[in-house]
Description:
The protein has about 290 residues and is of the alpha/beta class. The protein has helices at about 80-85, 105-110, 130-145, 160-165, 180-185, 190-200, 220-235, 265-275; strands at about 5, 15, 25-30, 30-35, 40, 40-45, 60-65, 100, 120-125, 150-155, 170-175, 205-215, 250, 285. It is built from 8 helices and 14 strands.
Amino acid sequence: MKTVCHTCMHHCSLEPGQRGLCGARKNEGGHIICENYGRLTALALDPIEKKPLKLFYPGSMVLSVGSYGCNLKCPFCQNHEISMLRLDAAGKPANRQTAYLSPEELAQKAAQCQPSGNIGVAYTYNEPLVGWEYVRDTARLVKEYGMKNVLVTNGTASLEVLEEILPYIDAMNIDLKGFSDGWYKKLGGSLETVKTWIAHAAAGCHVELTTLVVPGENDSAAQMEEEAAWIASLTDVAGGKEGKGIPLHVTRFFPRYQMMDTQATDVQQVYRLANLAGKYLEHVFVGNC
């Protein structure tokens, strides 16, 4: 009997034993389980600016963790070795090792890193919300230690998932991959889903957005102007700020994964788009230039 996963907009209908599009959620005995729970592929103490977050505890460090799996199929993914990781017939990663770390162990490790400037835990590298239960359980414990939780996400999970985790999340960087339905469809996503997620998340915690400028796809002035105007129109964001106060990171594309033959974005185009966004937003940052 099939069971539907409601974690994201795909609503995968899974046969017993079958994994969803994300590669991390599975129908086991009629129940959708988080198969990547606690199975980490990456762990590093990073500068907070690397998330990127520019206006959230600048100059601090954050213990950054990732698992495997993603519910989008971006051909330019910079972490495709883990985000696109799939398990073999025995249920083991085909080409990368994972190490199990319980929520308790991860929270303790974050606390132990405080002398090195660590402020908490960042859930990042792959799409962390395909394993949202681990994010929720760990983030709750991290808060009990008096530390911060940061989420780096594509913003395509359901609002039910957002309600589960938002009480424990202090800051997010959300990928807004462009402002075109067609571009999002190419990536296997939904622009409206991301817009809804951003609007709700910004009402509950500090939010910064990132748009990677991909040549020939989302690099038009008209699309950036529409995007920036929409961000500025948001209301009731965290701390009583207006949408124009939400930081936007406009970043340069470099050849990656399945787009190795595509040239890097022209630097001047990145700056032109950032300047255009700056007509609507108070904080616009350029990255990878």
